Amino acid sequence: MSFSDDFLTILTSYSGGYRKMRALMRGMPSHKRRVLPSLDAKVSENVFRVTLSRLKQKGLVENQNRIWKITQRGRDYLSRKQPRLPVHASPVLEKRHKNMIIAFDIPEREKKKRNWLRGELINLGFEMLQKSFWLGPSPLPKEFIHTLRDFRILPYIKFFKAQETEIV
Asked: Range of 147's domain?
């Protein structure tokens, strides 16, 4: 996906998307940002403004009362470009003990599913230790495990029980 697509995705799925994009541009620590491939590096102020201007010219975003929002046309554009992957939000919003490590090695041909998995792990309260090594709370929702099986990526994933204090 391109920077523009990632920009639209954030504006779609996050109410403070514009502010989040600005924070990413300034270099928010990688463990706090959503895992979107084109946002791994800092983005210059000029690239940020030009991208926003082009999206506005195409009618994909609009500025209402100094708040940037994605338009219906932008949503339609994204729905044609992105696969429909389910989202599993954390069932309990309170902070839970991180006692599970998830490690995965998903093949390059399954890149979209790998990026989806990273986003889901963040939604479930996991913290990235490395790109394919995550620490978070257990148990995982059954629907999440079923989705992994349905996507045929479960064989590439390993689950370990551990306490946060045991990690050096």
From this structure: 98-166
For the four alpha carbons of 12, 49, 59 and 6, in that order, the dihedral sign comes to negative
Predicted confidence (pLDDT) per residue in 7-26, tens digit? 677 676 555 566 666 666 66
Cα separation, 17 vs 10, in Å, equals: 5
Residue 160 lies in a domain: yes
What's the CA gap between 138 and 96, in Å, rounded? 8
- How far, in Å, CA of 21 to CA of 133, rounded? 25
Confidence of residue 64 (pLDDT cuts 50, 70, 90): confident
The length of the chain, given as a count of residues = 168
Give CA separation, 134 vs 6, 51, 103, 119, in Å.
22, 32, 6, 11
Instruction: State both tokens at 150.
Output: 């349905």
**Could you give phi then psi for residue 68, rounded to 5 degrees?**
-85, 130
Q: Write the CB contacts of 74 (distance below 8 Å, at least 6 apart in sequence).
A: 8, 11, 12, 55, 59, 60, 61
Tens of pLDDT, residue by residue over 119-132, are: 888 888 888 888 89
CATH code for the domain in which residue 126 is found? 3.30.70.240
Q: Looking at 35, 55, 81, which one is the last position of a domain?
A: 81
Split into its structural domains, the chain has a count of 2
